[in-house]
Amino acid sequence: MSKIRVYQLAKELGISSKELIEKLSEFGVEVANHMSTLEEDEASIIMEFYDIDNKKPKDKKTSKKQNRENDETKGKEAVHEREEKKQESPKKIISIPEKIIVKDLAEKIGKSVSEVMGKLIALGVFATINQEIDFDTAEVICGDLGIFVEKEEVKEEVEFGLEQEEDKPEDLRPRPPVITVMGHVDHGKTSLLDAIRKTNVTAKEAGGITQHIGASEVEVHGNKIVFLDTPGHEAFTSMRARGAKVTDIAVLVVAADDGVMPQTKEAINHAKAANVPIIVAMNKIDKPNINPDRVKQELAENGVLIEEWGGDTICVPVSAKSGEGIENLLEMILLAAEMLELKANPKRLASGTVIEAKLDKGRGPVATVLVQNGTLKIGDSIVAGSSYGRVRAMMNDKGKAIKKAGPSTPVEILGLSDVPEAGDLFHAVREDKIARQIVEKRKLKVREENLNATARVTLEDLFKHI
Ligand code: GDP
Ligand code: MG
């Protein structure tokens, strides 16, 4: 169970793998090379041995606890030494790719090929100068040569061509703002969204609200506004944790009869941390016992200074119940959006964020995504988190099947292999193959990370054990 690779243990002991292999051999533990796995008892032997070798002959009477302390200090010293070395010659940390050809490595680290080959042979790795070795091997031999290397991070975007050139200014077109409604529980977020949709529906298509996909588009005087239904704090926490920025403006709902409450403060903090402008919707103004001035003062006390108070935050009195002020709120949103000069390039491959996703019995994985840049089309190959596939069907917020979706359009899509997570980014790619490769690589990375975590735990267990 508690296994460790030779090079890992060598690293931990602050010695070269070669040295470790030799020591193991003296103890009758023959290993093939630095990648060989050691059993827990084999590792224990060498660690005890190392104690002696460290000119700190092990006192038979020392308690296990003391030994552990020794080990800890030793570990710290080694780390310290390594850090010092790094500081002495900061130039010596060289970035190398995950796999590198022997002669390229020699060139990169400024050593002769024969020196590098020599070290490889000493490790029991028989590679030709044109052969590739992996990072772990390279790290070990570089370590022997007194050179520190780090893994060159090849950004996935670069590797798979997801990161296209920046949009040319002439390709940029204005895009609708994306709004998140936030505020304390029961202050009227859901009612406000309903009221907004109703205003819009009655104005446009008296048929009523049809399908609901977790986001909706509203049209005001020919201008679109997109509202996300995700509870505000979720949109900010889970999505931001994945690096997604979906919201352009936060509408902060504050009940005029209740004022600033804990979740109001939380919402303010989220919006500020994400650098998203706030518009205050002072709700429930139809109620008799309201005190808007007190609410404004409380807002000011929490860093939201509205216009009347000399600040630049717009505050719109509304009633989600009577509909009063809703039009005004929408106009203010458009005004604020205009100042942000939101633009995107409809011509490129689509990218955006997963808003919500679920497994539908009949239709398979269903995801609502927000297209943030580019245009998503039926048949596009896409990758979202660890799922991929081809867009088989798309539906807009009104439940209508559509063939393409431009920037700032929320759409429900079918055709993914798995259910992605809310907050996952999605990208349309040129070929199915690329989408599959990206997902395979992402899954592998997760597995590797889990494995590494296990290896670390194992090592700690080992220290404890000794
Ligand atoms: P949420 O928790 O923020 O989503 O709040 P809801 O939209 O569920 O509203 C909470 C309660 O406040 C419900 O009983 C609503 O009917 C009521 N409510 C919401 N907006 C108004 C309003 O403008 N006026 C009045 N009088 N009640 C409202
Ligand atoms: Mg609600």
UniProtKB/TrEMBL annotation:
<feature type="compositionally biased region" description="Basic and acidic residues">
    <location>
        <begin position="66"/>
        <end position="90"/>
    </location>
</feature>
<feature type="region of interest" description="G-domain">
    <location>
        <begin position="177"/>
        <end position="325"/>
    </location>
</feature>
<dbReference type="GO" id="GO:0005525">
    <property type="term" value="F:GTP binding"/>
</dbReference>
<keyword id="KW-0342">GTP-binding</keyword>
<feature type="domain" description="Tr-type G">
    <location>
        <begin position="174"/>
        <end position="343"/>
    </location>
</feature>
<dbReference type="GO" id="GO:0003924">
    <property type="term" value="F:GTPase activity"/>
</dbReference>
<comment type="similarity">
    <text>Belongs to the TRAFAC class translation factor GTPase superfamily. Classic translation factor GTPase family. IF-2 subfamily.</text>
</comment>
<feature type="binding site">
    <location>
        <begin position="183"/>
        <end position="190"/>
    </location>
    <ligand>
        <name>GTP</name>
    </ligand>
</feature>
<feature type="binding site">
    <location>
        <begin position="283"/>
        <end position="286"/>
    </location>
    <ligand>
        <name>GTP</name>
    </ligand>
</feature>
<keyword id="KW-0648">Protein biosynthesis</keyword>
<feature type="binding site">
    <location>
        <begin position="229"/>
        <end position="233"/>
    </location>
    <ligand>
        <name>GTP</name>
    </ligand>
</feature>
<dbReference type="GO" id="GO:0003743">
    <property type="term" value="F:translation initiation factor activity"/>
</dbReference>
<keyword id="KW-0963">Cytoplasm</keyword>
<keyword id="KW-0396">Initiation factor</keyword>
<keyword id="KW-0547">Nucleotide-binding</keyword>
<protein>
    <recommendedName>
        <fullName>Translation initiation factor IF-2</fullName>
    </recommendedName>
</protein>
<feature type="region of interest" description="Disordered">
    <location>
        <begin position="55"/>
        <end position="90"/>
    </location>
</feature>
<comment type="function">
    <text>One of the essential components for the initiation of protein synthesis. Protects formylmethionyl-tRNA from spontaneous hydrolysis and promotes its binding to the 30S ribosomal subunits. Also involved in the hydrolysis of GTP during the formation of the 70S ribosomal complex.</text>
</comment>
<dbReference type="GO" id="GO:0005829">
    <property type="term" value="C:cytosol"/>
</dbReference>
